[in-house]
Every structure is written in C-alpha cells, then in structure tokens.
Amino acid sequence: MDYKETKAPVSTVTYDKEAIEAPTDNIYEAISIIAKRATQINSDLKKELVDKLDEFATYNDSLEEVFENKEQIEVSKFYERLPKPHAIAVEEWLAGKVYHRTPDVE
Predict the structure, then answer these.
(1) pLDDT band at residue 62, thresholds of 50, 70 and 90?
(2) Residues 91, 8: contact at Cβ < 8 Å?
(3) Which residue, among 84, 76, 82, has the nearest Cα to 54 in the 3D structure?
(4) C-alpha distance from residue 46 to each of 39, 75, 91, 99 (Å)
(5) Is residue 104 pLDDT above 90, yes or no?
(6) 29-33: which pairs have CB atoms within 8 A and are 24 or more residues apart?
(7) 96: left (phi over 0), alpha (psi -120 to 50) or beta
(8) What is the pTM of this model?
(9) Is pLDDT above 70 for 97?
(10) pLDDT given at position 92
C-alpha cells in the first residue's frame, strides 16, 4: 500500500467516538484493531526506510569518522514528514479499508 498518498492528518485530530466504534459496536475492539493495523503500517514503513537508507550506506572500519550523506538526510526527512502510523490506521478504519473478523461469529 502506498502510504505517501494518504489523506491522514499530520497533526492531532479529535474523532467522533460513534464513528470509530460503528463497525464493531465496541470501542475497545475497534481501538485494538486500529492499534494492530498501526503496528503493521509502522513495520512496513520502517522496512521501506531501512531498505532505502541501505542504498546510500558507506561502510568503513574507522569509528571516528562519521559521514553525512545528503541523500540519507533527505530520505529521513521525507519519512519524518509522513503522517504517523496511528493516524493512517484511523483514516483507513474510517474509510472501511481495514478487514477484520471475529473468529467466534460465522
């Protein structure tokens, strides 16, 4: 999924409790599902960031020398400006893009 195209807010937003709990009729279950989705998004973004930063990595044996690569800094700044994983997860939840099921109910 392309998280760069999301319409999730970058800053804190207050959501309507009824809108959050509407798909499950239970606010705690809804928050649990959103939290699990946020964890998935966070791991995806972290893996993507590490892969991109590895492209620019320079390995050397000297610990005293620190190289600042402008490309690495720009990539890091781009990922810092993205909405937080929990904001993306809430936006997906409200849009109905998160699949969830209860194993007890058929």
Answers:
(1) low
(2) yes
(3) 76
(4) 10, 12, 19, 22
(5) no
(6) 30/93, 33/93, 33/98, 33/100
(7) left
(8) 0.80
(9) yes
(10) 92
